[in-house]
Specification:
Number of domains: 1
Structural class: alpha+beta
Strand order of the largest sheet: 1-2-5-13-7-10-9
Number of strands: 13
């Protein structure tokens, strides 16, 4: 009887563990675009297809929007905010070979301000950022406001590309909306890649310096004044 109960308990624990693990991954199937995107749970990640079409060269494209919620604050030891990684997997031969990320809604629920934001394309030899069509900050380009600066970075030997935005602040509790306006973040997929092709897009906020609350700041100032008087 004891062994039977133990077996039942172990089975229930295994089922709960599998269920919890399944809830940690959310998958959106973009049938019209021919891609599947997996990422964090549904309450932290969403994606929608705005349009699918064919350009004058006969290349299929898709325009998508992405919503993300960053909830975890910086790691106490490294100071790094955990990134959100979106994994793209091809569903068939008719998938779009150019993806336009029209705009994003990125909620800063991390408790700290951000002084920068990185898009890292982990491409597996399959995908690349189209810098010319993205045209960051241009008249019709991909907006990274409130950031005023950007840099394209290629990591030698790592098969990674990074768009790094800086020169601004996204306050804690606010929403960052890259791409708001006419521009897009453009990703080109190489048609000669192995099927099913896959690549990942990692998005990573760069934390800024935490500003003390007024009460904490007042205590710090009072302590500094007391120390100054003692030294005098």
């Amino acid at each position: 009887m004891g062994l039977a109960r133990s077996a039942i308990v172990l089975c229930l624990l295994a089922i709960c563990a599998l269920t919890a693990h399944a809830e940690m991954i959310n998958t959106f199937t973009l049938d019209a675009a021919g891609w599947q995107i997996s990422g964090p749970p549904a309450y932290d990640f969403g994606v929608a297809v705005d349009a699918v079409g064919t350009d004058p060269n006969g290349q299929k494209y898709a325009v998508i929007e992405i919503d993300k919620n960053f909830r975890d604050g910086p790691d106490p030891q490294t100071g790094v905010i955990p990134p959100i990684v979106l994994n793209f997997t091809q569903m068939g031969d008719g998938s779009a070979m150019r993806l336009f990320i029209d705009d994003e809604s990125v909620a800063n629920l991390t408790g700290v301000s951000w002084r920068g934001f990185d898009w890292v394309l982990m491409q597996n030899g399959v995908a690349t950022f189209n810098q010319d069509l993205t045209n960051v900050g241009g008249l019709n380009g991909f907006s990274v406001a409130p950031f005023s600066q950007h840099q394209w970075i290629v990591s030698p030997g790592m098969d990674n590309q990074t768009l790094a935005a800086s020169g601004g602040v996204v306050p804690a509790g606010s929403t960052f909306q890259p791409g708001a306006g006419p521009g897009n973040l453009v990703i080109d997929i190489q048609p000669a890649g192995p099927w099913p092709m896959s690549f990942s897009l990692k998005e990573l906020p760069i934390p800024g310096v935490s500003v003390p609350e007024p009460a904490s700041l007042a205590m710090m100032l009072a302590g500094a004044v007391a120390l100054w008087r003692r030294r005098k």
